[in-house]
Amino acid sequence: MITGLVGKTNVGKSCFFAAATLVEVPISNYPFTTIDPNRGIAFVQGKCLCKEFNVECNPRNSQCKDGLRLIPINIIDVAGLVPGAHMGRGLGNKFLDDLRQADAFIHIVDAAGSTDEEGRPCKPGTRDPVDDVRFLEVELTMWMYGIIRKDWDKLARRIEGEKLNIYHAIAERLSGIGVTELDVKKAIGLVGLDIVYPSRWTDEDLKKFASELRRINKPMIIAANKADIPIAEENIKRLKEECKDYIIVPTSSEAELLLRRANEKGLIEYTPGNKEFKINDLKKLDPKQIKALELVQGLILNKWGSTGVQEAIDKAVFDLLKLIVIYPVEDENKLTDKDGNVLPDALLLPQGSTARDLAYKIHTDLGETFVRAIDCRTKRHISADYQLKNYDVIKIIATAGK
Ligand SMILES: Nc1nc2c(ncn2[C@@H]2O[C@H](COP(=O)(O)OP(=O)(O)OP(=O)(O)O)[C@@H](O)[C@H]2O)c(=O)[nH]1
Ligand SMILES: [Mg+2]
To answer: Are residues 367 and 221 in the same domain?
Structure first.
């Protein structure tokens, strides 16, 4: 599972990335600070089943914190865009190729309107963040169009000449960006394109196709960042009214970074996503730190309920991609793996996944030699095509490895 951070330059992408991963990266108030991509691990917060089953867990692929199961996902922060990037403005849009394999995007927007269209600092309230949403859509579509346009004429002729399955042929050509046959089929259907004679598609058709494909294959939520700046409130209200297609989460990456770092240093007790933190020892904080923490509490936590960074990540995974959490185990009674670890792994799978999909996700051999599975809650046997439910605990029985 890979999430890409996209957006105009100088809006707080790297700050969001640093807050989510605690990886140290350059952050500064001028455009194009980031050039090469930053990659790191962030955690989505699921439910740990240790409470429900009243057991002590030994997580392996994830962590348990007070009943929350922190499940790792990959997160990539790339260079920023400006309008016209697809025509080479700013750093261009070629660096988006680093996000080819991303499952979803988080669009970081300067909700305070404190950076102009080129990402230069300006008086808060000056730039309309709705314009930033719109220009980014165009840039992402043009990036996708560029990928599709390359070799298109040749591919269209081949599809017609060799009577290839158009969905399969296009998906194969775009497998590098993780496009599936179903994605292609949906996008072609939405635009209403001719599936027999793709060579007749106009350039405009291809752009519409790219636009739909982008929406389907790289779904996006909006992190309305810099929500700590008071004027952001009005803008966020308007963003919600004018960009109804999107899940919009008010965020303050800067506040989250401050809290996460203070927590790492042991100065405070803070769980990402919470609306409060606890100061461990007031004497260890200098007056500047106390003031900063007070501002975070007042401007962000009390007002918005959290810094939003964790919420944005969780919503991208659970609400946008609609992934579910599954706990595979090898012993249906003790809920352990073969080494005796209790509830060792929590896996993220697409809604609608079956027991066999889970087996494949664990290991190809398990998928191929799947016999049946056991729902560890009910102890019932389930078949390969059983549709998994969120928070199922499943034992797979297969001939592989026996
Ligand atoms: N007030 C406020 N400032 C923020 C917030 N997040 C980031 N910033 C500031 O915005 C500026 C840009 O932050 P970066 O994280 O470097 O932005 P970026 O989008 O990665 O920028 P480029 O890599 O240059 O495209 C820095 O001065 C940050 O301190 C926030 O939530 N609130
Ligand atoms: Mg950056």
So the answer is: no
CATH of the domain at 341: 3.10.20.30
* 313 lies in the same domain as 377: no
Q: Please say if the pLDDT value at position 257 is more than 70.
A: yes
CA-closest residue to ligand 1 atom 6: 12
Whether 347 and 306 have beta carbons less than 8 Å apart is answered as no
- pLDDT value at position 402? 55
Q: Which atom of ligand 1 is the closest one to the Cα of 35?
A: 23
Q: What 3-state DSSP class applies to 151?
A: coil
The residue whose CA is least distant from atom 7 of ligand 1 is 12
What's the confidence (pLDDT) of residue 8?
98
Q: Is the CB of 12 under 6 A from ligand 1?
A: yes
Predicted TM-score (pTM) of the model is: 0.96
CB 42 within 8 A of CB 313: yes
Q: Are residues 178 and 297 in the same domain?
A: yes
pLDDT band for position 400 (50/70/90)? confident
Name the residue at shortest CA distance from atom 1 of ligand 1. 226
Q: Do the domain assignments include residue 224?
A: yes
- CB of 354 closer than 6 angstroms to any ligand 1 atom: no
Q: What is the mean pLDDT of residues 256-265?
A: 97
Mark which of 270, 305, 321 sits at the end of a domain: 321
Q: What local confidence, expressed as pLDDT, does residue 259 receive?
A: 98
For the CA of 15, the closest atom of ligand 1 is: 15
Helices 129-149 & 203-217 angle (0-180, nearest 10): 110
**Ligand 1 in reach of 296 Cβ (< 6 A):** no
pLDDT at 401: 58
CA dist., res. 26 & res. 29, Å (int)? 10
Domain of 91, in residue numbers: 1-37+78-321
Average confidence (pLDDT) over 334-341: 97
Q: What is the mean pLDDT of residues 217-233?
A: 98
Does 264 share its domain with 389? no
For residue 13 and ligand 1, the question of a CB distance below 6 A is answered with: yes
Q: Determine the distance separating the centroid of ligand 2 and the alpha carbon of 56, expressed in angstroms.
A: 40
User: Which residues, including other chains, have CB under 8 Å from residue 255's CB and lie 6 or more apart?
Assistant: 228, 296, 299, 300, 301, 307
